[in-house]
Each structure stands twice: as C-alpha cells, then as structure tokens.
Amino acid sequence: MIEQVRSRFGDAKDLVSEVMDNGYARLELCFFPAMCDVDQIKDAILVPFSYRFDPDEFRRMLKTGLTFLKSDEPKKWPELLLKGCVLLQYEDKVYSFLAIRKMQKAPGDTEVEASLQGPQSAFTEDLDMNMNLVRLRYNSPNLNAELMEKGEISRTRIMILFDREKVDRTSLDELRKRLESIKPQLIQASGQLAMYIGNARFSMFPITLQTERPDRVAQLLQRGKIAVLVDGSRFAITLPVRFFDFMHAMDDDYEPFWMGRIIILFRYLGMVLSMTLPALYIAACSYNPEFFRVQLAFSIDGSRAAVPYPSFVEVFIMLFMIEALIEASIRLPRFVGSTAATVGGLILGQAAQQAGLVSSIMIIVTSVVAISNFVIPNSSFSYSIRALKYVFVLVATFYGMVGIIVTLFLIVVYLCHLRSFGQPYLAVNMQKDQQKREQSR
Amino acid sequence: MKRLLRILLPLVLCLNVSGCGMKDIDKRFYVVTTGVDLTDNPEKPYRISLRLAITSAQVESGSSRTEIETIDAPSIAEGVRHLKSHVDKELEFGHCRIFVLGKSLLRTASPETMSFFSRRRDIQMISVFAVGEPDALSVLKVSPKSERYPGNALFLSFGNEGTESPYTITTYLFDLVRKAYERGIDPILPVIKAEGRTYVIDQAVVLNKKGTGLLLTPKETQLYKMTTSRSAKAEVVLPLDEQARVVLTVSQLRTKIGIDRGTVPTVRMKVRVSGILEESPPGLLERDWHGLERRMEESLSGQIEDLLIKIRNSGTDPYGFGLKYLSQYFGKEKDYKYWQSVYPEVKFKVESDIHIKGPGVIR
C-alpha cells in the first residue's frame, strides 16, 4: 500500500508512511501529520498496537470501531488521506481511521451581525461545528441534511439543510439543479458559491442571504427556507429570500414589539435616505431650488457661493472620499484603522468645506449617507444600496427631480420582476398567500 | 450592441424632457419681493421693482442684505425679461412669496395685465398679494432691523407662520385669480404701509372687477377678518361711558351666512363668539353677566351691519354673497343679472351671540 500511495503523491515530504512491527504482527501506516490529530492516532492505534497488544482484540477493534472503515479501493486512498484520514494496513486489509485535526473547538463570536441581547455565538469555519450549532437550535427530526462536494480542486464539503415538512419543493429542486450544473475549481467562501448558484450574476440585489448567525438560520429553516453550509466559511447561505429579510435584524425579534417596529421603520428610512439623498441634493440644488424652504435655500445658496464646481461634481468628490474611507477602514489592519477614520472624518470634512471645495450642507449629506448605510443589517444588501446611490446621482445630474422619481419607480418594477429561486422577491403578502394556497390544497 | 443601443436611445431622448435647465442654486438670484407700480409715461406704464436676496452662509439678526432693481416697461413680462440684463445671475421667482401692487395700479389695471403672475411657472400659487402704500417701490425699500433672511419679515407677516394679527388679511395668488374671474365674489387685498423701518399691515382694499375699490379702516378690516375666516385671534370691544372699555378676547368664533330669497333678498349673518374678558371695570361682570353679553351682542351686530352696508354701497362683494345666492338658487345668467340689479338694496340681518366664559385667569 505504501508504495502505491507514495507514488500517487509524488513522494510528498509531509506524508508519513511507516511500517511497524511489534514482534507479533506488522502494521503499515500512512497519514499527513499536518491534517491529523496525532494524539488521537496515538490513543486509537499506537497504544493498542504496541504495549497493550492482543491480536484478537486488535482485530475486533478494527472491525467494530466506529471510526475505522474498511477501504479496499486503492483509487479512494489519496482522497481519504487528503481529508485527514489515517490509512492502515493490517493483515492485508486496508482500513481508514478518521482523525481530522479540528481547529475550532468553540463557536465563534458574532462579528458582522452583532446583536445586543440575542445569542452571541456565530458559525465557525468548521462544518461539523456549524452543524452542531444548527442542530442545537433546530432540534427536530424533520431537519434534513444533504452532503455534497463541490470544487474540482478544493473538494469543499457542502451541507444542504432544510425542514422536510416545511420546505418549498420547487426551490429545493431549483437549488439542486443549479448545484449540479456548476463546475467551479475552488470554493473558498460561501459568498462565492452564492454567486455561482445565484444565476443572475449581474443582479442589482442579492437573491440569497448570507448570515453568520445560527439563530437566524434556525428561524429561516422554520419558515421553510433552505440553508447551505460551506466548509471553511463562517457564513451560511439561505434561500429563497425576500427583500424584507435583508432589512430584518435578529434583535427585532428579541426586543419589545413596538421598539422593534419603530427601529425597522428607521431602518427603511435610512435605506431610502442613503440611496437618494445625494441625488436629491443635486436635483434640489440644480433643478428645483424652490423645493426647499426659503431659509434653507438661502443658506445653501450662501454656503455654495465659494464652490467652484457644479453640484454634481461636488457630490462626486464627497462620495468618492467617503467610499474610500469606508473601504480603507475595512481593509486596513485594525491598529491603523482608527487613524484613517480620524484623518478622513475630521480633517478632510472640515478642510474641504473651508477650502471652498464643497458646501457645508454637502458635508451633512455625506455623513447622513454614510451613517444611514450602516443601518442596513445585511452587508451584501448594503453594498447594493451603496451602488444604487450612484445610479440615482447619475440620473439626478441629467434629469433632476423627475429622474429620481422615475428611477425610484423603475427600481420598484425591477424588484417586482426579481425572483429568488422561484419565489417573488418583493412579495408583500407572502404569508397570507401561502396560507391561502395551503387551504385550497 | 443592438441591445445597448435600445437602452441608450431612450436615455438620450430623455435629455430633452429634463425641463428647466440645470442651473446651480448659487447661480440664481432670488427675488424675495416683487413690486409693480404705474408710471406717468404712457409708453412704459409699468414700473417693475424686484427685491433681490444677497445670501451669505452666516445668519445673524439684521444681517439680511438685499438689492433693489427697478425698470419701466410697457408690460410686466417685458420688464422682467429686460431686468435680467441688469443682474449677473438668473432671476428666480421660486421663493418670491410677496407681490406688492402699487396703489395707483389698482385704479387702471385689469386682471388681464396681472395674468403674468398666474401664468409663470416659477411663481408659486401660494404667494401673497398686497397693495403697497404710498407705492410698491417704497414698500420694497423698507428693510426691518429684525430681519434675518432677506425678505423674511414680510413672509412672516402673512399667513399664520409668524405673527397672527387680526388686522392682517392674507390673499394668496390662487385665491386672487379665482376671485378675479368668478362672478359674485370680489377680491380683497391687504395694504402694506411703509413706515420708517417697519411695515404696517392693518388695512385692506376691496376691489371690484374693474379694479377700483373700497379702503377699509383697521377696525373694519378686523371685523371683516373675524366674519370671513375662523380666525380666533380677535377682539370685541364695547365702549362704556367714563372712558372705560370692555374688551373681549375671542377664543372661539363661528359665522354662518344665509340668503333669503324675496323681491329683495335678505342676507342673514349669524356670528357666534365666545371668549374671556381681558379688560373691564371691576365688578361689572358679576353685576350683570347676561346683560353685558347682550350689550356686546348689540354693539357687535351694529358694527358688522354698518360694515356690510358700507361694502354694499361701494358695489363690491368680498364676502361672495352673489356666489352664495347663485349656489343656493341654481343660479343661471338671468338670476345673476337679477342679483346684480337688487344688490344695492339688499337687506342685512346680523345676529350675534356672545358668550363670556369668564374674567380671565385668577391669580
């Protein structure tokens, strides 16, 4: 066996292959120490084989042990070794022993979707740990799990989870069909997979929701959605989703009813502001100044007097600055991050206004846009809104207020047209419709 | 490629429909008050004056700065067009909420010449029209000390935004246009008097369709405002002997107007007023509460009737009795002619009902 394996791996130096002899029997052993838990190998194989050796007991252990599997096909050996198995040959039979080295021993902390009073644990980069987290929260025999492997090279394990009784069958079929049709080389993050199965790569809005919160996955499963867990990724993909799911934070369910509603309302307001405010500024400044009250009109007029460029150039300058700032603070190491914020926020904002490059109202507009964009709980959705803002700015530059209203209308039309795995994206009365359908069945 | 073209073409075509051209807010010159006067020159009868706002980023009391541009022109539209060559930025009427017509203008101008204001797209229909005394230009030249924003003092004077004076009548453009063309109702305009560094707006002019009008005194203006709008911020005064006066502040007010048909129609007006006494000689109310109410009712009814008769005799109809008559009796052309013929003899019957709630707050 050893020669066969060695030749397949091209004499890899990190492969350990050993022939052991305790005087009574011979054992051939090969494994990747980097991928295996050496303590487990010692406890399960080396100890029984060496100083507590009993041929009968050892044979029985190999045959009945849960973690020992008989693997006679030489074709599968490299695959098993790469997954972190130990291959051992004893009395001309080959067994594999699963001794994967686990990096994660505990659930992670929520980082992207922080919550005040909800659970603080998040998914980890280990699929088994994630399964544990989901099973813990969704403790029902109806929970179906299907294992799959995707990626020609990465061979990433993928787990499809759904509630057998509640799941929407058409969506599930659609998902399976799409998963079968894709042939990616590497799958390193769930976002990547989401893009492959999303079908519409140029869609303006995400049609799958990625979350790092097990409680959200459990909630969505209970509502008949499907979750896809990807090994090595902290995020689960859930589908099909609606527009409103993206604006929902888990805290809304944990806070008192009215508080939650009011905060959701503010969130929608923030979304609309962050999308349209720069465009409204252009439209009101350059096309319809009578839109403001007279006091505001005069103070904008006064503060814009020193600005040399038309309003849309001013907006582009400020928006570029704020986008650069956001991007920088994400990419920079944490120690330098706060410097970027200070430099950008304090110095650029104040100085740009005093230098007469932008008006003081524009500074307020920019900060409202930036802050209200962070109100959106889902990051991929907030990316969409960030991008849409530029569509509005462009339209407002050419068509003014009329353009903004028409674009807003077009976006609603687009949202109505969008489907997430067969389900309408902007379904307002989804639950009522489903109830009706079930009654008529 | 074809698809791209199909998307781009409508967008390019849309460039034509963007409406008013792109002009930044700081490239526009805001007109805050417009004045129109009559000149002696028959070739250029209109003198158009615009009060333009000079804006600044800092706002302090009394910091408002304005500039006045004046031109004589054969028509208002021509004058405004010509004035554009006097200034460095595009004239913008979007925030011009006060239009002052010179007193001299009222005598000759017909509604048609005034239609400029209602036709222009950037003049808002909620702008206020008033009569300037002695002329519009001198009203424009007043710059009150308390003014923070250019033109703001006049903006605040009208409507209920700033002061709520019982003497100030507010006539909006949409209302003026309606009343200028509707039969059976006549427009009424407030009079702005320029006095030193402030404005005094306590009188009103009732116009008939030809323009000539009737000037109401401040007292009559207040009565008119009381009986037409539900403005509660008014007072009813009963002069007693020995120079003592009883003043009732109105807190609730309701007026009903009905017209009885007959050979000579009778206009019935019911005014219900309730409020508290703000000023009265001591012990008066306790002695004869109802008697006092009755005396005040009689006095108020008399005052209102006098006002109505005065208005009737001048041949104007700001209350819209004619319109009311037509609406009540399916008015056709014939009915209106009849109404016009009997209007000078119309009888008025005013009933007022005053309820004194008390002598005010007890401390």
UniProtKB/TrEMBL annotation, chain A:
One of its GO terms (biological process) is spore germination. One of its GO terms (cellular component) is membrane. Keywords: Membrane, Transmembrane, Transmembrane helix. The chain crosses the membrane at residues 268-289, 309-328, 358-376, 388-415. It holds the Pfam family GerA. The keyword Endoplasmic reticulum does not apply. PANTHER family: LEUCINE ZIPPER PROTEIN 4, SPORE GERMINATION PROTEIN. Belongs to the GerABKA family. This is Spore germination protein. It comes from Cohnella thailandensis.
From TrEMBL, chain B:
This is Ger(X)C family spore germination protein. It is a lipid-anchor. It holds the Pfam family Spore_GerAC. The keyword Chloroplast does not apply. InterPro entries: GerAC_N (IPR057336), Spore_GerAC-like (IPR008844), Spore_GerAC-like_C (IPR046953), Spore_GerAC_C_sf (IPR038501). Residues 22-193 form the Spore germination protein N-terminal domain. Belongs to the GerABKC lipoprotein family. It is found in: Membrane. GO terms for cellular component: membrane. Its main location: membrane. Keywords: Germination, Lipoprotein, Membrane, Palmitate, Signal. GO terms for biological process: spore germination. Residues 205-360 form the Spore germination GerAC-like C-terminal domain.
